[in-house]
Amino acid sequence: MTTRRSVPVSSASRRQFLAYSGAAVAATAFTAAGCSAPPSTSASAKSPGSASASAGTRLTKIGLDYPFTQLPLYTTLVKLSTAAAKQHGISLLTTSDAAGADTQATNLNTWVARKVPAIVSFPMVFEATEAIAKSALDAGLIWVTYGGSLEHQSADIQFSFRKGGTRLGEAAAKWAEDALGGKGKIAFLTDSTIELGRERTKGMIDAFTKAAPGVDVVAQEQAIDPDTGLAKAHAILAKHPDLNIILGVTDAAAYGGFKALQQAGRKNDDARTFVGGQDGAVPSLLAIKQGTFYRASAALAPNDIANAVVDVPRAVAAGKANPSVQVPISLVGHGDTATIDDLLAQNG
């Protein structure tokens, strides 16, 4: 695909779908690359905006490129995606990018050169990945963008980015009104580096500040992982020891803020403290279930994500229209024990 499209809730979006004709070419090229052609194929019509991949083929390999191996979701996602792929006779390949953009680019270029038939990639630098995605499409491969959208893609997997941030911000604002009388101090742990982070950040800040204008915003700091969240929260608390609220663009960062408050002497059941994050990471879910001042998470179900990692490239390979997905998100808090237990079970 070579034109951008709008996605509801978020301004992000990239890749639509591929088709390519020729039974003999498909049978040889795709079998070598890890795809097998259907028993009988005729020339398939090329869809609007499509690039050069085969519709109606059966995938046998999918490459999952998730660079943020430091996040709790990584191990769970690989395990569940591997299991989901196996159910369809597909083997799952993974990269080891260690959160390095250059390493990610090298690994992706290697996959394109080796003609891995379907690549699901979470780009660290979307602009820089655009050329790699185009190369993949030009080589007849399927490219699925995870966590955003590229101009050149077969489909994408998105997570209601702004909606998650908005729901978290609204929940925190309501709590501030009820518990603090609409007054207090808040710090945001944000991300400005990728589309997912920017949309989540905007959602939570806009929703909170609109609904709780009497709460002072004392800090907005870049943090997506626990260690950075911990360090940034300690620095904020040094200036504002009476900080009431920390909201994070990820649960990992928010959990670092949670630990910083605990280390500063905040009691687990402090009635004037609220921490919340996004993703549904296990430590955060456990803290919510235990009734601590970690009060909310805009959570994604790992099974939903893993299924999308496998089902979206399969849908592209099968020539289905509109193969992209928006993985649903739900806000969980104190009292949502059954939902939390289900999410914890999925995280295994």
CATH architectural category of the largest domain: 3-Layer(aba) Sandwich
Radius of gyration: 21 Å
Give the percentage of residues in beta strands. 15-25%
Secondary structural class? alpha/beta
> What best-fitting shape do the alpha-carbon axes yield?
elongated
Cα end-to-end separation = 37 Å
**What is the fourth-level CATH superfamily of the largest domain?**
Response regulator
What do these coordinates show?
- The chain has 348 residues and is of the alpha/beta class.
- The protein folds into two domains: 161 residues, 3-Layer(aba) Sandwich (Rossmann fold), CATH 3.40.50; 140 residues, Rossmann fold (3-Layer(aba) Sandwich).
- Helices cover 43% and strands 19% of the residues.
- It is built from eleven helices and 14 strands.
- The strands form three sheets. A six-stranded parallel sheet has the order 4-3-5-6-7-13, sandwiched between helices.
- α9 links the parallel β11 and β12.
- α2 packs across α10 and α3 runs parallel beside α4.
- It is elongated and about 60 Å long.
- The two termini are 37 Å apart.
- 53% of the residues are buried.
Topology record:
Blueprint: H1 23-33, E1 35-36, E2 58-59, E3 61-65, H2 73-86, E4 91-94, H3 101-113, E5 118-121, H4 126-138, E6 142-146, E7 155-158, H5 161-180, E8 184-190, H6 195-211, E9 215-222, H7 226-239, E10 245-248, H8 251-263, E11 274-279, H9 282-289, E12 294-300, H10 302-317, E13 325-326, E14 329-333, H11 337-347
Parallel strand pairs: 3-4, 3-5, 5-6, 6-7, 7-13, 8-9, 8-10, 10-11, 11-12
Antiparallel strand pairs: 1-2, 12-14
Helix pairs in contact: 2-10, 3-4, 5-6, 7-8, 9-11
